[in-house]
Every structure is written in structure tokens, then in C-alpha cells.
Amino acid sequence: MAHQDVLAAHPIRARRRLPLDWLGIVPFAAFALLFLILPTLNLIAGAFQDRDGAFTLQNIVNLFTPSIMAAYWISIKVSLASALIGGFMGFVMAATVTIGGLPGWVRSPLMTFAGVASNFAGIPLAFAFLATLGRTGLLTAFLMNVFGFNLYSTGFNLLSFWGLTITYLFFQIPLMILIITPALDGLKKEWAEAAASLGASRLQYWRMVALPILWPALLGTIVLLFANAFGAVATAYALTGSSLNIVPIVLFTQIRGDVLQDPNLGYALAFGMIVITGVSNGIYIWLRARAERWLR
């Protein structure tokens, strides 16, 4: 009899507990709805409307004009370059502190710095690079005064494609370190020992065992770095202004001054960015899931 009473009371307790269990994520859900989901839906709707609010595909067609396509292409090249270079350098740094021969105490300061630097962007980052690598920057003046080397005589310009790419590396490399380190920790020592016992060299172990296992995580993280750089606007605008015509700057200029005299084209620009970053993040999630199955 008592057992039946417990079973009968259990669903009631579960029903009473359910609202309290979900209450903790209400603030997050509210912020996501107000500042992410609703604005995104508004952008998507505006991309397919004309000035009078009628449905049209002309805004999407206008994205394929030469000037806008050039802006997308520059953004893709900057994002891809910073993702590939940052991914390689971040992977090497993470590997040296996880499975390399560096002392164990190096890992903690590196991970702390990576956590801070991966979120250091926008105007402060642009100012830091201008103060360091600008025409009158600290490093530029040091190279000139001490070694007589004029950095800008080589064709380098901080307000250019490679200047922006180098600036992006400041937060791309730390982000790569943070994301790829757990995957490197997942490599079991027994795999390396088994490969060594079978006569495999260190290079053969990496080529035939470690890299195939890490490959989904590596590709997924590089795709995430691409999306991270593609959506960055504050750093690019503060560093280069309008001298480098990337999509976020074109969109930012449209929002501030309506230079294109077509607000709905601005919505279409944002919609194009949403599609590219959404596809990138979808690929990252898929590759990440494949990597986690291997590393369990």
C-alpha cells in the first residue's frame, strides 16, 4: 500500500519540480530571444521586402553586384587567411604544452592568457596594434632607430589585407588553443606506446594515428575561426576605417549613414553574413561531433 502511494505521488512531485528546473535558463532564453532570435528574424524578413514592405527578391539579386561581391570576397580571404594561420600556430602551441616536452607549469599561464586574449578585440585591439605596428608605432620606431630597418619600405601596411589579418591573429590563435587543447588531451598515451612498440616513428604516429583522429576537430575549429573572423567589425573598422572594403564595414556604414540609400539592401547584406556564418558553424558542430566520438 505504501509502495503504491509513493508511485502515485512521484508524477505529482515531478510535475511540480519541472517549472523550477527550467527557471534557471529563463534569463538566457529571454536574452537570446530579445537580442538574437527576434533581430535575426527581423533581418531575414527585411532582406525579402522592398521599401513598401512588399515581398521581393531584388535585394538578394543586388548582393551579386561587383562592389558587394568584392566586399564579400575580401572578407572571405581575410577570414580564411587568419583562420588557417591562426589554426596552425594555435595547434602547434597547444600541442607543445599538452603532449610536447615543455614543463607542466607553462600550460596554466598560456591557457589563462588565451582565455583573456581570445576576447580582446574591437577598438582596444586596433589601438594596441596601431601603437605597436603603425607608422609611428613602438616596434616600427625600434626597428628604424636600432637596426635602421624601415618596416613600411618593404610594402607592409597595417591598414591593409595582411595588416588586418595579423591583427585578427591576436584573438584567433588563443581561440584555437582553447578549443583544440581538450582534443589533444583526449589522445591516449596507449596509442603512442602501441605505435612505438610496433616500430613506428614519432612522425609515423602523427601521420597515421594522431592526425586522422584529430582531423575532424582541426577542420571544425578552423571553420569556427573563419566564422569568428568573418563577423568581426569593430576591430576592422577601428583599424582600417573604410580603406578596406569588407562586408562588416559596408554593413556598418550602411547602418550609420545609409550610404547605399537602400535600407533593405543592408538587411540583405546582413542576411548573407548570417548564411555564411551559419553554414560555418553548422559544419563546425558536425565535425566536432565526429571528433568527440573518436576521443571518447
UniProtKB/TrEMBL annotation:
Its main location: membrane. It holds the Pfam family BPD_transp_1. GO terms for biological process: transmembrane transport. The chain crosses the membrane at residues 22-48, 54-74, 81-105, 125-147, 159-184, 204-227, 234-255, 267-287. GO terms for cellular component: plasma membrane. It is a multi-pass membrane protein. Keywords: Cell membrane, Membrane, Transmembrane, Transmembrane helix, Transport. Residues 72-284 form the ABC transmembrane type-1 domain. InterPro entries: MetI-like, MetI-like_sf. It comes from the Bacteria. It is found in: Cell membrane. The keyword Transport applies. Belongs to the binding-protein-dependent transport system permease family. CysTW subfamily. This is ABC transporter permease subunit. The lineage of its organism: Bacteria, Pseudomonadati, Pseudomonadota, Alphaproteobacteria, Hyphomicrobiales.
